[in-house]
Amino acid sequence: MVFRKLPGVSASGMGLRLSQKFVFLLFLSGLVTLCFGALFFLPDSVRLKRIFLSKTESQPVTVGSENDVREHLKKGAKDPEHLRGITSAKGETSTKLKALSRKPSVTNEAKTDKKVAGGEALEDMTLSRSKTDSASKDEKVTSSSNQGANTDTSFDYNKFKKCLLKPPLGIEHGKPSDPQTLQRREKVKEMMKFAWDNYKSFAWGRNELRPLTRNGHIGNMFGGLRGASIVDSLDTLYIMGLMDEYNDAKEWVETSLDLNSMFKRKVMVLGEKLLPAFNTPTGIPRGVINLGSGTSWSWGWASAGSSILAEFGTLHLEFVHLSELSNNGIYTEKVMNIRKLLNKIEKPHGLYPNFLSPVSGNWVQHHVSIGGLGDSFYEYLIKSYLMSDKTDEEAKKMYYSALEAIEANLVQKSPGGLTYMAEWRGGILDHKMGHLACFSGGMVVIGADDGAPEKRQHYLDLAAEITHTCHESYSRSATKLGPEAFRFDGGAEATATRLSDRYYILRPEVIESYMYMWRLTHDPKYREWGWEAVEALEQHCRVEAGFSGIRDVYAQTVSHDNMQQSFFLSETLKYLYLLFSDDDLLPLEDWVFNTEAHPLPVVRKRCLQGEGGTHDKTTSE
Fold it and tell me: What is the reported pTM?
């Protein structure tokens, strides 16, 4: 999922979101999208291209401190995937390689990874091409990459466009015909505008809004980069048709996004600067890299210098996309090497532990979690298959084998009949499920059609049961919002038994599963559950100047944590908006959402390599 959120944080640090996939993924993903016309979202912009195609050398960037990471882990932050980068004890500036796990819990930082999108007018969403430099009039994007790649690095935008099955924004921008659903969608749009307007009024150019104190939050998890909420919100604003707000955001990116500390040359150069992290005996990348020197190292808190499964295992979509854009196969080669090693080494009971040594290629601890530290690895297996237009048979095989092991070892049924995903520690089950793991209902349902035909209904049922359990974690709280983690032992079912697990930081995973379940089953209860979440967010998280997380979902009188996470704009509100939209708004046939809810296009190689498009004529409208 590139910076998802990390679980477990101190009350005072409840705003941090450890990456979801790396700081670079927020910006690599997002800026690659911006730089190349968002492959269907961004319009031509000479000024924007000048920013990213400048010849200035890229500088190293600090993306967070190791102390911040440790603080999260002390509190049970099992999903370091949001950790974007850290500064070493010697003060080296660095950037985190990938998001540790799905969404980290929180400390006062937020996530930002992923593919960002936007455009000047809704019509532009069907694509506008981007040129290699500001003066180019060609219909191709060219980027240079000097690390063992094709010298012809041209990307044919028009050919790519013809391979879409449907218009990205649908016939009527996903407008539902049902008046009540339309009214609910408009409410979500109003929430986005409210959150955005307050961010703009009180925190413009900062990373996130502190709505109670009405000021901005920068933090050190973004390595000196500013405007995380702006970059993360671009595609949400565009999809919702908030064009004035989108244009303000685009103008800020064009004129004010300070990339001096990270990179000003082509996005491809950033990709190249990340490659030294893969220079290990196994090809498994280390978690942190200094962009200036190319030196990389593992997180200090990671067991025995290990790399994190949800970190090195959540690079695939972005790196394959980068290879497509640059025509440089080295990025795909790097992530395929990771896969090769994972297929070769022994897996305890077919499971993938969270920690792997980049030196020996052996598992360091036998801790398995579908939540923090592991989650997005599994998500990216099935999504890699889908993004390849269902040609990546290896990803498919790995996903269904992993799912079989998960069902055999982790899926449990409570005395009350609730299905949940436990954690596995060297053969001993910990009957706890984190909010981060609630993405798995959506993961299972999007893969239901492509497994063994006789198991299709089983997968649909399993996805529904997991999503039901996560809904129960919401409905059993006083606020009707879910805790960071909930347990199934000591008489507890789907409730948090520890004070440190009771907070809610505007996380999207449960709503994410509602959206996928609605898209693939059209069971109206998922829209009703989504509306329950909207009402709870409005009642308990909306304050005078934005939205804030809360410290205890079971308290009748809520205490706010004073943080409007950027992923609330990027993921939570986007998934709600899609839930109340028709299916042709970013249709799943053409788009795969990365772990930060930024859409990436399905790569139809046969169409791209053939003559003309082979799909629906509506793409040309």
Answer: 0.79
Cβ neighbourhood burial of 402 (10 Å; 0-12, 13-18, 19+): buried
Looking at the DSSP assignment, which residues form a beta bridge with residue 423? 430
Q: Who has greater pLDDT, 113 or 261?
A: 261
Which ranges constitute the DSSP H helices of 179-242?
A: 179-203, 228-239
Q: What token pair was written down for 274?
A: 């990340």
E runs forming strands in 4-52: 4-5
Q: What is the DSSP letter of 27?
A: H
DSSP string, 354-391: SEE-TTT--EEE-EE-SSTTTHHHHHHHHHHHHHTTS-
Give the annotated binding-site residues: 595
Task: Give one DSSP letter per residue of 271-328, joined into a string.
Answer: HHHHGGGG-SSSSPPPSEE-TTT--EE--TTSGGGPEEHHHHTT-HHHHHHHHHHHT-
Cβ contacts of 434 within 8 Å, gap of 6 or more: 7, 78, 79, 369, 371, 372, 484, 485
Both structure tokens of 584 = 């042709």
- Residue 49 CB neighbour total at 10 angstroms: 24
CB 104 within 8 A of CB 80: yes
- Asked if residues 21 and 7 have their Cβ atoms less than 8 Å apart, the reply is no
Confidence of residue 109 (pLDDT cuts 50, 70, 90): very low
- Overall average pLDDT of the 579-605 stretch: 95
Strand segments, DSSP code E, in 76-171 are: 95-96, 102-104, 140-142, 154-156
For residue 262, give the amino acid letter.
Answer: M
Identify the pLDDT of residue 373.
92
Residue 215 Rama label (left phi>0; alpha psi -120 to 50; beta): beta
> Cα separation of 60 and 289, whole Å?
9
Q: What is the DSSP string of 75-100?
A: TT---TTB------TT----EESS--
Confidence class for position 300, pLDDT limits 50, 70, 90 = confident
Confidence of residue 262 (pLDDT cuts 50, 70, 90): very low
Q: Higher model confidence: residue 60 or residue 289?
A: 289
pLDDT at 296: 86
Mean pLDDT over 183-211 rounds to 97
Q: Considering only CA atoms, which of 229, 234, 222 is closest in space to residue 200?
A: 229
Active site residue 92: no
At residue 256, φ and ψ (nearest 5 deg) are: -125, -15
Catalytic residue, chosen from 109, 379, 484, 571, is: 484
- Of 350, 378, 395, 518, residue with least CA distance to 440: 378
Binding site, annotated residues for Ca(2+): 595
